[in-house]
Structure formats: structure tokens, C-alpha cells
Design a protein that fits this description.
The complex is a heterodimer. Chain A is 35% helix and 23% strand. Chain A is of the alpha/beta class. In chain A, the strands form two sheets. A six-stranded mixed β-sheet of chain A has the order 7-8-9-4-10-11, with helices on both faces. Mean pLDDT of chain A is 85; it is low at 1-6. Chain B is an alpha+beta fold. Chain B contains 27 helices and 20 strands. In chain B, the strands form three sheets. A six-stranded mixed β-sheet of chain B has the order 8-3-2-9-1-10. Chain B has a six-stranded mixed beta barrel with strand order 12-13-18-15-17-16, surrounded by four helices. The chains are: A alpha/beta, B alpha+beta.
Chain lengths: 254, 869
């Protein structure tokens, strides 16, 4: 396991003037407009906002899936805009983990092979990769279903596999894009709880995009986006129910 | 607005369907163009064939027409043999005939260098005419000099175009090969246009022509013009009646070998075209299955908002029709260009051998229509099943995620049916019956296509192990991806299989034939020295030598045994005499000397005892058949066959079946020189073979023979070992041509693979996005697609080689059955080199097919791919 690369006083993620524009001229749409966000080591940050506010775009830019129109993303001391595609891919593989709304598992691979993908792609010996993936699956309560195919798993179970895939390379940051959007309430709570649990220990941070105040309330901090700009930010404390209520009010205010 | 009903409504619906189809097609330019390519390829092959066939036939017809021209009637013997001039009187005496003339017309090959002839002219017709009667039948327009006169002995009349090519003018000497060596003729006149179209005719007095061909007192054609105001058919019938059924009204038979070659070429080309279309329909089927699967949501939604099943069917079919039309249009242009290219390439050959000009005809309405029908037809046929599947999509499907394909049960049934077909085919092979085996050959292909889906997974696993050695990280995913759509993988692999199978089968047949023929070559050319004519086909226009050459050869010091072959055309009367005069078969007769022939050459007997057979040939009217003729006449040793000659009908006893190398492909009978001269008027030697006497100095003997041969420019002296080497080299060339064909037939397979891989990439866009997101580099994406491509190619290649070896074995069995085996079975040669080449091609196709789809997959923008549905 990599020890912390930089001192905890320097944030894990720091965006500077992050702007993303789609289209040109008259048809240009600004999805993100000079956004400055930082995520500390071990922090669980939720991003909320109405549809089209730029939540997913922010996540994609921080995750290096897309390139900003202007501005930059500093990730664990690296300016990601200076990296070529291969370097960026390797950075994703080693420092980032992704969880998607639609799970996006490969139907041809078993649960453990799916979870082991980032390690296998990184050239780790398949046995060791599978062992690490199996450990994570067991920790996420999937020990009984290691060899199942995605089609044999429920939505919640599939998302746990996706979470194990995101975690097995021991990344610094987990990026979750509406991870519970396709799950029922109970499964959604379980996944959010798991994300809560994986943030913090050994400095691993989580950035989750959601529109559900109940799930956002699991986070340490909520960033509110509207029309591509950060309009509010709130640090949560106190009991869960109070947090949910407060978050609901903020969302309603937007 | 009220709904529009009736024809206008239907038109509106069709417009909507076509507009939607066009949008869908344009939305996937790569896939659309690849699928269209399959149509283009098939149509191009077929259309060029439909243009070439009439072009070649027309050239052939011209070649036949040459001898008829503007005359009303032309008479020849059914066998093509020469006959006595008394028939001219018979024709002339028929009421209604105004003039008649006899002629001796034969093709002749000019040895290079004769009479200073440049290499541009090497074939012409020598026409012996009777000056007393000829000018009344045909008109000869002079540009210089004079016509032939009765008193002329060695004079010649040539078309000025030919004279120009030969560099001759009036008063010069034309040297032609002749039975006596050479004939020197004085050019007395030049003709404006040749009296017959397209011919390079040289007109000589009849006597001179008869001396050249050593056919004293013989003619082989009578031409006549009718009196005006007579009923042509009545006169023709009267002439036929007087001459009897042994004579034919119409043209002289010539160029028969060329026609056989054209037909064989057309057959091969036709098989190739059919295969291309079959592969094309596989590819189209694959594409449309994917199209329908991909649009389940769209169809469900359309059904939900009120589209009828017919509308859905119409939409899919409209798309296929659009694609078919575009593909056909491009295919027509390409086909025309292909045909034009081939005519240009073959033009030289038709000019040389048929002295006819092949011209690319303008496409007829019929050929255009059938190409259109075929192109659009196969596209619609390929799309039909998927289109019906589309109509079964329920509105509910719009709301559900795409289901995983559940084709397992259908795959099991098709595997069982395929296995049954393969088992039957295997039985056919074991039975060694050519008929059963060839039926089995069809079953093999169909059976393998049916079994293919079931073997995709095991084969993918097997070759996947190999692949993982190369790309450990991506190999496993590639393997899983392929096994996911076994049907699609199977159809794609089948496309490649069909091509490779045909290629490998042809190669193995050729390899086996070459091996067999080299044996015949050694037997047939056992003599040390050969005096060869210009054309290796003995009946191909060679001017033979009179007996003088053989005699001089025998008297040459140091020369041991000498033997010669002669040639004539014969015609067998159908046995039983039921249809009186009906001709059962035309074939060539080869004259041999039964004493010397077995010493220097000899036949490979499959029936009958060689010693007794040769003795019988020397003693009586006896005939040895080669197996092609035996098959044609359905005759066996002991039977009697009736041959028709200018001397009337003659009965020959069949005494054996055997073949020689030169005539193995043509229906041939072997008789003695004496019988050939008596019954068929053929007295000239076309091929002479000699051995040195024991103890003679070979180089001295060679020089002595060369001196004798110098007087006969139609012949060249060749060491038999040199000749054999040149024949082996020819076989090699054919084999190389087959390798080229092997590459060509894999082309549709390549298109199919690119298509399938591109479909796979499109279908798995989101998965590729995920893989990229979790850390797959572009290089790794490319390797994954390459892995899939290689596995697909491995499957196709493995099946193709298997089927190819099977088909090849059946072909060899068939070739043996029609007699090339010398009675037994040709030994089947496993085409090792062919299999290696097929594997190499398979690998290459695997790599090439992956190029575009891999690039496409690697370039997918991750965010868009993740959102892709």
C-alpha cells in the first residue's frame, strides 16, 4: 500500500478556474464556469444540484475522463492537464476508482474478475489481482458470490462488485456518479454506507455526485452546484436525520 | 389533420420508412459502407461475368463465322475430316444452287522467323481455292496485283493488312511451313478487305494447299451461292439430302479447345460469383441482426406510439433496399470496369488463338436488371429474418434493458443437424463413390456452418490460451467477448471458411494432379529427343510433316528408334443405330506406330493388356480409348464402335483404355497410322520422338537431328528432359495462380470480419468506456480488439482448412473417377503448403480486419462512451 504521498495539509484534489464549454459560438453551453473545489485526504464530499448543473462534468474532469476547456485539476500533486492519454490512463488506474450509475460490469467476466480488472490491466499477476479483488468483495459482503456473472447478481450486488473494482487498486480517490440511481432505497443506503466506510481510513477520499439529499447526508461536506457554478457549500455534523433535513432545505432553496 | 389513407398514405409511409432508413445508415457510416461492400463485391463479380460471357461467345462466334461469310451455304464433314472433291459436283448439281466451289481450309501456326514473319503474326488460315470456281462464290477485291489463275502453282493472295504485318508486297516470296518442310509461294495479289471478317487468311491454289497439308486430292469444305428467288431452306434441305447425314451444313468446327477453355473459365468464375454472393448474404444477415438488436428500444417505442408491425417490417426492409440499391449501383460500375480490364487482358489471347476481336458489349437491359435483382435481392434476403424478428419486439421492450441473447437452444439444434450432415458426408467419403462423396461435399460446407456456433466457445478457449501468451492482460477479455455472440462469430467465421475451403480444395486438387501428371509425363516422353510442333495441342493448327521427315530421321547416323504421332478428327455414330446418323461424340484420333510407340512412349493402361492392345492396333481396325473418350462413348474393351469418316462408316474394336500426357484432357482414340491414313486421310506426323542408337555420341546425334529438322521450320528439336521441366514449371505457375486465387476468395471473409468487429465495438461502446475509465490504455483496447479478430480468424481458418481438405479429397476422387487416375485413384496429396498459406492468410486477415475497428474503439471519447446506450 502506498503511504500518503503528500502532507495532509495539501488537499488531495484542487481545481483552479475549472471551465468546460460544449459547442461553439452561439450554441456554446458552459457546463462548468471557473469552479474551484478542493478535496482533502480522507474526505467524503457529495456534489448536489439540479439536472444539468454540471455535477457529472465536474466528476469527469476530476477523474481525467474528459479534458477541461480551461483551468486545471491538481490531483495528489500532479497537474492532470499536462499528462498525455497513456499517463492519464495509468493515473486513473492507480490513483482513482470509479463507480457508475449503471454498474458497467463486463458481462463476460465473473464478479472477482470484474473487480480485479484495474490490477490485471496494470500487469499484476492474475492470481494476486484476484486475491486482492476477492478480499475487497468479502469485505463488501460478496464473499459468497465471487464466481457469479453480473447477470446472476442483483443491482445492489452488482454495485458492490463495481465498488470492489474501484477499491482493489487502493486508489487515493473514489469517484461515484449517482451510484445509487438504479437501486432501491435499502440497497442505496447500503452502498452509501459502504462509501462512508471506505472514506477516511488511510486517507482515501470519496467524491459522490447525487441528487438525493438522504444519501448526500452521509458525506462530510456537500458542494452545491447550479448553472456550472459553486453556489453553496456546507460541512455536516450532528445526527444523520438532522443532516438530511438540513440538506433537503438547501436543495429546496436552490 | 385527418390521416391520409390510400395510395398517398402508403407513399407517405414509404417515404418515412426510407428517410428513417437513410438516417440510420448515415448514422453508422463505417458499418453501412462495410455491409454495402459485401453487396458491391457480389454484384461486381456477377455483372462482369454477364458482360464477359457474351463478349467471349461473340468472339468465338466470329471465329466460326469467318468460314461462312457471305456465302449461302457451307458444307463440311461432321468429323471435320477432309473428303473427295466429287461432293462439289453433288452440291452444284442440286437445283437452286447457282455456283459451288471446293476448298481446303486449315489453321496453321507460323513458326517464329518463317519468311521473316515478325512475332505479331503466328496464326493464320491457309485456304486452298479453285480459281476456276471460287470467284463466282465469293468476291475478292484487289488492291494490288492480280487474282490467282488456273495456271498458278505456287502463288498466294493475301489481305493487304496481313501483308503489311509480314512486310510483304506483290512479287515477294511467302514461306509457309509444309508437310515437306517449307513451301515457297509468290505473292501475286493483295486483297482490300479480307473476304471474311476478322480472318488472317492466305489464299493459295488448291493444289498448293493440298501439298502443304499432304492431302492430295482432298478438300474439307464446299461453299455455294443460291440462285436468286429460290427458297433457301428448300435448297439447303435438298443439298443435305443428297450428301447424307455425314455432312453438315454450316460452319467448319474449329476452336473447340478454346471453347472448352472459355466454358471452364466461365464455370470457375460463376462459382466464384455465387460464393461471393453467399458470403455477402452472410455478412448482410449479421449486420441486420445487430441492427435489430440495437434498436429494440426504438422499435418498442415506435410500437408504443402506434406503429404497426408492418411499419416496423417496412422500416427494416426499406433500409436494406436502400443499401442494396447503393451497393448494386457501385457494383455495376466496378463490374463494368472489371470486365473491361479482363477483355483488355484477354484480348491478346483471343486475337492470337481465335483471330477474333473480343469487344465489351454495352450492358443489356436484361443483364442490368438481373444484377439489380440479385444485388437488392440478396440484401433483402439477408435482412428478411432479422426484419421479422424486429416486428416481434413488443412495446414493453422499450422500457426494459436489452436482454442478453439466449440463442443456446437454437444453437444446440443447429449443431445436431450439422453433426448429422457431417456424419452423412463422412459416410459418403468412406463409400468412395464419387456421386455420394460430392453430395457429401455440399453437406460438409452446410454442416460446418451449422456446427460453427457450437464450436465457437471451445475453439475460442483453445486458441485463447495461445493468445494469452501474447497479450496476457487483454486476451481473456477478447476470448470472452467472442464467445458472447456465438452466432455472429460463427457466421463471420463461416464467411471466411467458405472462401478458404474452396481455395484449399482447389490447391490440393492441383497438387495431386501435378503429382499424378508428372508420372504420365515421364511415361509419355520416355524418348530422348522430341521434334515438337508449335502448339502442344496436336490438333491446334500445327502443320504436320510428311513421312519424309521420319524417314530421314531414321536414316540419320546414331539415331535409334523413331516414332511419330498423327492427328485427325473423328465422329462416333451412336450405338444401336436408333437415331440413324446421330452423332454420339466428336473426338480426336491419334495415329501411332504400334511397334515403335511403346518403346519410346506408350500409354498408361487402366483396362486391357498393353501388349495385346498394341498388337491388335497394328493388325486390324482396333482402337485404344483414353478414359475421357471411354466415358463419353460408354464403351469398354471388347465393344465395337462405329466411326464416321469421309470414306463412310468404319467399325473399330475397342482393345484397351489408356492415356498419354498430351491428350489426357481431351477425348482421344489411338489407332494405327495405316488406319488413320486409309479412313481419315491423315498422313502427316505432328510429333516425332527419337532415341539415340546404343553407343552413339548424344551431342553428335543431336547435331545431326538438328540439321534434318532445319528443313522443317514448323518443328523444333527439344530434349525431353527440357520439355518435362518446362511442363513442371507450367504446373508451378498454375499452382501460384491458385495461391493468388486463395487470397482473392478470402476478400469477402475479410469484409465480413471487419464488419463484425466494427459491430462488436459499437455494441460494446459503454463497456469500452468503462474499461478506459478503470484504466485500460488505448494500446490495450487495440490489443483486445486484435485478440478478438485473431480468434475469429483462427476459427474461420481452422474450419476452412478442414473443409478444404475434405472438399479437395472429394475433388481428387471425382477427377480420378473421370479417368485421370489412370484407372485407379490419384494419390491424394495433403496440401501442406496450401494449409500453411491459408494459416498465413488467416493471420493476416485477423490483423488487417482489426485495424479499423481497433482504432475506432481506442479513439472512443470516454465520457460519451459511458453515456452510450
Amino acid at each position: 500500500m502506498t503511504p500518503l504521498a503528500s502532507s495532509p495539509s495539501v488537499p488531495l484534489v484542487q481545481t483552479v478556474g475549472l471551465t468546460k464549454t460544449y459547442g461553439h459560438g452561439e450554441a456554446a453551453v458552459t457546463a462548468l464556469d471557473h469552479v474551484a473545489v478542493s478535496i482533502a485526504h480522507g474526505e467524503f464530499v457529495a456534489v448536489m444540484g439540479p439536472s444539468g448543473c454540471g455535477k457529472s462534468t465536474l466528476l469527469h474532469l476530476i477523474g481525467g475522463l474528459d479534458r477541461p476547456t480551461s483551468g486545471s485539476v491538481m490531483l495528489d500533486g500532479t497537474d492532470t492537464s499536462t499528462l498525455d492519454d497513456t499517463r492519464l490512463t495509468e493515473l486513473r488506474r492507480r490513483k482513482l476508482g470509479f463507480v457508475f450509475q449503471f454498474f458497467n460490469l463486463l458481462p463476460v467476466l465473473s464478479a472477482v474478475d470484474n473487480a480485479a480488472l484495474p490490477l490485471i490491466l496494470d500487469g499484476h499477476p492474475p492470481d494476486r489481482a484476484r486475491a486482492a479483488a476477492g478480499d475487497w468483495l468479502r469485505r463488501l459482503g460478496m464473499g459468497e458470490r465471487l464466481t457469479h456473472r453480473p447477470s446472476q447478481l442483483s443491482g445492489g450486488q452488482q454495485q458492490r462488485v463495481a465498488l470492489a473494482r474501484a477499491l482493489c487498486a487502493e486508489p487515493r480517490l473514489i469517484l461515484a456518479d449517482e451510484p445509487t440511481g438504479n437501486l432501491d432505497t435499502r440497497a442505496a443506503d447500503e452502498i452509501a454506507g459502504l462509501l462512508r466506510d471506505v472514506a477516511g481510513p488511510s486517507g482515501r477520499a470519496v467524491l459522490m455526485v447525487t441528487h438525493d439529499p438522504r444519501l448526500a447526508a452521509y458525506a462530510d461536506r456537500i458542494v452545491f452546484l447550479k448553472d456550472g457554478k459553486v453556489v453553496d457549500e456546507t460541512r455536516l455534523g450532528g445526527d444523520h436525520e438532522t443532516q438530511i433535513r438540513e440538506t433537503r432545505e438547501k436543495v429546496a432553496a436552490l | 389533420m385527418p390521416p391520409t389513407r390510400g395510395p398517398l398514405g402508403a407513399l407517405n409511409a414509404a417515404r418515412f420508412q426510407f428517410a428513417l432508413g437513410a438516417r440510420y445508415l448515415l448514422g453508422r457510416p463505417l458499418r453501412s459502407s462495410l455491409t454495402t461492400l459485401a453487396v458491391i463485391f457480389g454484384v461486381a463479380v456477377f455483372f462482369s461475368l454477364s458482360l464477359l460471357t457474351p463478349a467471349m461467345s461473340e468472339a468465338y462466334r466470329q471465329n466460326l463465322l469467318m468460314s461462312t461469310g457471305q456465302v449461302d451455304l457451307s458444307v463440311s464433314h461432321v468429323s471435320g475430316a477432309s473428303f473427295a472433291p466429287s461432293n462439289v459436283d453433288t452440291v452444284r448439281g442440286t437445283p437452286g444452287v447457282a455456283h459451288a466451289t471446293g476448298m481446303l481450309r486449315r489453321n496453321a501456326l507460323l513458326p517464329s522467323g518463317t519468311g521473316g514473319a515478325p512475332a505479331t503474326v503466328n496464326a493464320l488460315s491457309i485456304v486452298g481455292v479453285d480459281p476456276a470456281t471460287a470467284y463466282a462464290v465469293r468476291s475478292y477485291a484487289l488492291t494490288a496485283g492480280r487474282l490467282l489463275a488456273d495456271s498458278d502453282a505456287d502463288a498466294a493472295l493475301l489481305p493487304s493488312r496481313l501483308a503489311e504485318k509480314l512486310g510483304l508486297s506483290v512479287g515477294d516470296t511467302l514461306i509457309l511451313p509444309s508437310a515437306a518442310g517449307t513451301a515457297r509461294l509468290r505473292v501475286v495479289g493483295l486483297l482490300n478487305a479480307p473476304p471474311t471478317v476478322g480472318a488472317e487468311d492466305v489464299y493459295l491454289p488448291l493444289g498448293a494447299a493440298q501439298r502443304i497439308f499432304d492431302a492430295p486430292g482432298q478438300i474439307n469444305a464446299v461453299e455455294a451461292v443460291f440462285a436468286t428467288s429460290t427458297d433457301r431452306s428448300t435448297v439447303a434441305a435438298a443439298v443435305q439430302n443428297r450428301l447424307g447425314s455425314a455432312y453438315r451444313l454450316g460452319e467448319l468446327e474449329s476452336g473447340g479447345e478454346m471453347q472448352t477453355a472459355i466454358q471452364a473459365g466461365q464455370a470457375i468464375y460463376g462459382v466464384f460469383g455465387f460464393m461471393a454472393l453467399l458470403m455477402g448474404s452472410f455478412i448482410i444477415h449479421n449486420t441486420f441482426r445487430t441492427v435489430v438488436a440495437e434498436r429494440r428500444h426504438d422499435f418498442g417505442m415506435l410500437r408504443a406510439v402506434g406503429a404497426s408491425r408492418r411499419t416496423i417490417l417496412g422500416m427494416t426492409l426499406a433500409e436494406s433496399v436502400t443499401q442494396g440499391l447503393v451497393g448494386t449501383a457501385i457494383g455495376l460500375v466496378l463490374g463494368y470496369l472489371m470486365a473491361a480490364g479482363m477483355i483488355a487482358g484477354l484480348g491478346a489471347i483471343t486475337e492470337q488463338f481465335m483471330r477474333a476481336h473480343a469487344v465489351l458489349p454495352s450492358p443489356t437491359v436484361g443483364s442490368l436488371a438481373s444484377a439489380l435483382l440479385l444485388g437488392v435481392g440478396i440484401t433483402v434476403a439477408g435482412a428478411l429474418l432479422p426484419a421479422f424478428a424486429a416486428t416481434r419486439v413488443t412495446p414493453m421492450e422499450a422500457l426494459r434493458p436489452t436482454p442478453e441473447s439466449t440463442a443456446a437452444r437454437a444453437a444446440r439444434w443447429s449443431a445436431i443437424a450439422g453433426a448429422a450432415l457431417l456424419a452423412f458426408a463422412a459416410l459418403g467419403l468412406v463409400s468412395r463413390q464419387a456421386g455420394l462423396a460430392s453430395l457429401g461435399a455440399v453437406f460438409v460446407l452446410v454442416g460446418l456452418v451449422l456446427v460453427a456456433p457450437a464450436v465457437v466457445r471451445p475453439v475460442a478457449t483453445l486458441f485463447g490460451r495461445l493468445l494469452e501468451l501474447a497479450f496476457a492482460r487483454e486476451g481473456q477479455i477478447a476470448q470472452g467477448n467472442l464467445a458472447r455472440q456465438p452466432d455472429r462469430a460463427a457466421i463471420t467465421a463461416s464467411t471466411m471458411m467458405v472462401g478458404l475451403a474452396i481455395g484449399v480444395a482447389l490447391l490440393s486438387t492441383i497438387t495431386s494432379l501435378v503429382a499424378g501428371f508428372s508420372g504420365y509425363l515421364d511415361r509419355s516422353f520416355g524418348a530422348r529427343y522430341l521434334l515438337m510442333p508449335a502448339s502442344i495441342l496436336l490438333g491446334g493448327g500445327n502443320v504436320g510433316a510428311g513421312p519424309e521427315l521420319a524417314r530421314r530421321l531414321r536414316e540419320t547416323p546414331g539415331v535409334g528408334t523413331v516414332t511419330s504421332l498423327r492427328h485427325a478428327l473423328a465422329d462416333a455414330v451412336a450405338p444401336g443405330g436408333a437415331a440413324a446418323g446421330a452423332s454420339a461424340a466428336q473426338f480426336q484420333l491419334i495415329g501411332i506406330d504400334p511397334q515403335t510407340f511403346p518403346l519410346l512412349s506408350g500409354l498408361i493402361f487402366s483396362q486391357g493388356d498393353p501388349g495385346q492392345a498394341y498388337a491388335a492396333v497394328g493388325r486390324e481396325r482396333a482402337l485404344i480409348m483414353n478414359s475421357v473418350l471411354a466415358l463419353q462413348l460408354r464403351a469398354r474393351p471388347g465393344d465395337t464402335v462405329t466411326l464416321r469418316s469421309a470414306e463412310g462408316e468404319r467399325s473399330y474394336r475397342v482393345v484397351g483404355v489408356g492415356l498419354d500426357y498430351l491428350n489426357a484432357k481431351l477425348a482421344t482414340g489411338y489407332v494405327s497410322h495405316a488406319n488413320l491414313a486409309a479412313d481419315f486421310h491423315a498422313t502427316t506426323d505432328l510429333l516425332l520422338m527419337a532415341d539415340p542408337a546404343p553407343g552413339a555420341d548424344p551431342s553428335a546425334v543431336r547435331r545431326a537431328i538438328e540439321r534434318v529438322a532445319a528443313d522443317y521450320p514448323a518443328f523444333s528439336l527439344v530434349d525431353s528432359s527440357t520439355f518435362k521441366d518446362s511442363q513442371i514449371a507450367l504446373f508451378r505457375t498454375i499452382q501460384y495462380a491458385m495461391y493468388a486465387l486463395l487470397v482473392a476468395v478470402t476478400l469477402p471473409g475479410l469484409i465480413g470480419m471487419i464488419n463484425t468487429l466494427a459491430i462488436n465495438v459499437i455494441e460494446r461502446t459503454r463497456e469500452i468506456g468503462t474499461l478506459r475509465a478503470v484504466g485500460m490504455t488505448r494500446t490495450q483496447v487495440r490489443r483486445m480488439i486484435l485478440g478478438e479478430s485473431l480468434l475469429l480468424a483462427a476459427l474461420g481458418t481452422a474450419l476452412g482448412i478442414l473443409a478444404g481438405i475434405w472438399l479437395g479429397y472429394v475433388l481428387v476422387l471425382g477427377v480420378s473417377a473421370i479417368g485421370y487416375g489412370g484407372g485407379g485413384m490419384l494419390s491424394y496429396e495433403l496440401p501442406w503448403a496450401g494449409a500453411l498459406v491459408a494459416i498465413a492468410i488467416g493471420l493476416l486477415v485477423g490483423v488487417v480486419a482489426a485495424l479499423i475497428p481497433a482504432r475506432q474503439a481506442a479513439r472512443l471519447p470516454i465520457v460519451a462512451a459511458l453515456r452510450y446506450e
